[in-house]
Amino acid sequence: MLARDDFHAHRARPPGHLLTIAQNVPQRLILSRTRDHGISLAPLGLDNLVLDPRAGVHIAVLAPAARSNARRPVMAVTENAAANVAAYGALFRRDNGTRLRYALHGRIPYDDTAALQRLCEVHRVSPALRELFLTWFLPLCSLHIRAGITAAQLPGLLKFWRRAHLARPDTPGSDVLAELRHRVAAGDMRWVMDVRTLSRAIPEYPVTHGSAEEPEGAS
């Protein structure tokens, strides 16, 4: 059900334990569910039923990939989620010339918003810089710290983030950005914890839906 090449940059970080877990799947998968929300199966004659969310999450990635003509989309998931959805994604990972793969990331403690707010107030972090920390830097960290980011790590990461932002050059060289794209495509995320390199990759504006472009190969 799952192979090494189903993971982004699998050569750098082969997820052997997930391959073992993914072998334990039932012979028959039920793809329909009775839920209030989801992708309706009514056009197939299955009224009041929706596609199982474990299959639906793959379609949620493939749909925008098709609109942007991206042939190699990458779906960011935790290791637990990958183990849970892999069997349902078997029919979707190779679809009409499109190759969908998983990128493993660690959990981000977004639920502790009060602590984050206090940290930003103590360190006098502006709302715009806080937004960029939450929506851009922490997701990148989660691709590097795959064991998961803890609440205890947030103060240190915020200080590191401020240092990198203060060191940001006016105009990063195109050769630097090209190198970063290459490293992201290869799954090498160590640059995220290097102040000098990170400072050259920081986007100008807070990242909201569609407000900043992703590096090539990190779709």
Give the topology, please.
Blueprint: H1 16-21, E1 32-33, E2 50-51, H2 53-67, E3 74-77, H3 79-89, E4 94-95, E5 98-99, E6 101-104, H4 113-122, H5 127-144, H6 154-166, H7 174-185, H8 195-201
Parallel strand pairs: 3-6
Antiparallel strand pairs: 1-2, 4-5
* Quaternary form: single chain
Report the principal-axis shape. Answer: globular
* Total strands: 6
Class by SSE composition: mainly alpha
Total of DSSP H or I helical runs spanning 4+ residues: 8
Largest sheet: 2 strands, antiparallel
User: What spatial order of strands do you see in the largest sheet?
Assistant: 1-2
How much is the average pLDDT?
82
Radius of gyration, CA atoms, in whole angstroms: 19 Å
Query: Which range best describes the helical content: under 10%, 10-25%, 25-40%, 40-55%, 55-70% or over 70%?
Result: 40-55%
Pick out the low-confidence regions.
206-219
**How far apart are the termini?**
23 Å
Which percent range describes the beta-strand content? 5-15%
Order of helices and strands: HEEHEHEEEHHHHH
